[in-house]
Amino acid sequence: MEIKGITSRDIWQAKKRISSYITRTPLVYSPALSEMTGANIYLKLENLQAIGAFKVRGAANKILSLSPEERAKGVSTFSTGNHGMAVAHIANRLGVKAIVCMSNHVPENKVKAISRWNPVIKQDWESQDDAGKYCYELEKKEGIKVIPPFDDKEIICGQGTMSLEIVEDLPEIDTAIVPLSGGGLISGVTLGLKLTVPDVKVIGVCMERGAAMIESLKAGHPVEIPEEPTLADSLLGGIGLDNKYTFDIVKDYVDEKIQVSEEEISKGMAYVMENHKVIAEGASCVGIAYALRKGVIKPGSNVAIVVTGNGVGMDIVKRIVDENY
Question: Is the pTM above the cut of 0.85?
């Protein structure tokens, strides 16, 4: 069986390809959530990756899938967050030149975080859209491959390797709760799970503010929407008007798409801090926020919730503590 040209073999090949470059993260039982819901709930802690986020899986699979000749020319991307760090990190480990393009409005702390992995950083534009256009122009002129953040077969398969680990650790899984944004993560996890455990239920969760995938699904096609301030800022951004993979996969194979409020996200962040001593960013905690709703988790079910990363400043952590305690 294949979905959008992706098979379980593609995801298994990705697993083999990237195994030396990622951390096999633990699936940790949550006594508190399990007791509260009457279900068996586990957290997939992708915040324990070297860069602190799951994005390293997709970046590793994409870059490692390039030919030696392509790698020799270098890679580029236009992400200012976890994907930018992932590309820079993997390229640095492989000795591949990486160019990260970003607008001149990107905060210094984000630039510093990406700079840690020694990429070439260009900040010559007023917008991220213009930075992205430059990357693709560079690919046409010099053959420097663009490593896209989500709507790409190798990226999706790389993120999907997480699902294979989940099934290995929890063969009886019947429900997965996954953050929803551009769709690279949830597409990979959904395909990896459903090509292995066909009757598994996948729930995608995102914030109420600036949810481009949700608005695109409502419209029936990819749309652009304004970004809004949110604790789940890593889930912001468009899905691409020429989306080739993730829109259709989310539309056709993700069973439920849920939005949570800022208050719920704050409570989710506080909950995982208190009960698991884990600091996770707002985008990572949307699944926990949903699980905290009364009655949404079926008692007796076996649930995996993906915690995607730890990219949150201590000022936000302090605010979350102040709001909830």
Answer: yes
